[in-house]
Amino acid sequence: MRRHDEDWPFAAWLDIAVRIFGLSPQAFWSLSLFDWLTLISQRAGEGAVQPVTRAALSDMMDQFPDVTININEA
């Protein structure tokens, strides 16, 4: 049976984050998986993920507006 921790190389990634990128362990663990994969793909020259354009961000904000919940009324 394969162990779950063998699926993702977190120990190696943490080592890269600290030694190569100069991140603190706390900064590494604060990154989203998407942010980390983008960071290492740019370093490896695999073609960076393109940033979101202002128009695309505006479209997403229209599709998924922030919702404010009043916890006193819930």
Task: Please give a structural write-up.
The protein is mostly helical and 74 residues long. The protein has one domain. It is 51% helix and 0% strand. The chain has helices at residues 10-19, 25-30, 33-44, 54-63.
Keywords:
mainly alpha
Compact overview of the structure:
With 74 residues, the chain is mostly helical. It has helices spanning 10-19, 25-30, 33-44, 54-63.
Overall body shape? extended
Low-pLDDT parts are none
Main sheet: strands, sense, barrel: none
Number of helices: 4
Oligomer: single chain
Question: How are the secondary structure elements laid out?
Answer:
Blueprint: H1 10-19, H2 25-30, H3 33-44, H4 54-63
